[in-house]
């Protein structure tokens, strides 16, 4: 999960990294009050989970509280790269002398972290790296050793950052480790005219696998998240919404992927990827179907389960529970095979719902679901 800038700012502050005074609001009127509290002038910043806000009109200096209100009013509700601006942060303007870039990112392939740093901050680091690769230092960080003062000095030297940034580099590493982040980025980290080192913008990506330890961030409050994906996430389902018309649900990522291919091979388009996983209960099946069927684009649903740890009779019971709970209006094609397939098929046959039909092969089931979706 990505954090908003204001949340990243809060984490930085908690770990002793200097950040400008700032407050967040969803109200233009309150923005005026905040600017007043900050001393009159304020940088108004759209809180959206995307970079390059400055260029897109999402970072503006307001000269006084009235201007802050006006700017906030213009920004709230606007879209930046498809993200709706629901909140703005007002930050105290900082007198910038130089802008730097620093980040730590997980390098999965190398099994390490990578420190990326540059004395040319402020702009998108990809642009700097493309135009002047020699201006971007990339230093591997061993996760067991972490970033000590010595390591931070090595990073700062490689990037040409002033020695005062060493302390921030060490603290930023502590943010990464203690907050279970996969990425922490400060762009720009600035040196002010008075010589202070201040983090003006922050991006933090938390490791979703550690969410149980980071409960304070709660559920993802991203207004941009697809409502169905949010509903699926709330039920603990692995669901990705796609743009087709055949709902797909299966057990195991590999099987679901090949089911998507099978549907596409029949000339239809899958509406989603939904993996109920191994050992899925009837409840999980029912939850999954409920999510898929609430997608208005779905014309038919293909349930493809190869019973292993997941027994097909539990899956069948989940299907029966789901069709009884929601008023089923779309056809469901079910293919059950493997562990307890015979019992599962019998359960569905006995329920004999007019919109539920069974096909014994995967290709046959995909063909039938595709036909139902394209003729519906
Ligand atoms: P983004 O990276 O999304 O464009 P930033 O927060 O990095 O947004 O802001 C863009 C630029 O605006 C920064 O590089 C910096 O020059 C300037 N800026 C941002 N916050 C402040 C601030 N508090 N004081 C002065 N300038 C700022
Ligand atoms: Mg930035």
Number of domains: 3
| CA distance, first residue to last residue | 37 Å
Residue fraction in strands: 25-35%
Q: Provide the structure class.
A: alpha+beta
Task: Write the CATH homologous superfamily of the largest domain.
Answer: Succinyl-CoA synthetase domains
The CATH architecture term of the largest domain is: 3-Layer(aba) Sandwich
Q: What is the element string, with H for helices and E for strands?
A: HEHEEHEEEEEHEHHEEEHEEHEHEHEHEH
What is Rg?
26 Å
CATH fold naming of the largest domain: Rossmann fold
CATH class of the largest domain: Alpha Beta
Task: Give the names of the bound compounds.
Answer: adenosine-5'-diphosphate, magnesium ion
Stretches where pLDDT is under 50 for at least 5 consecutive residues are none
Helix content: 25-40%
Overall mean pLDDT stands at 94
Query: For the report, how would you describe the main beta sheet?
Result: 6 strands, antiparallel
* Oligomeric state, counting identical vs distinct chains: single chain
Treating each run of at least 4 consecutive H or I residues as one helix, how many helices? 12
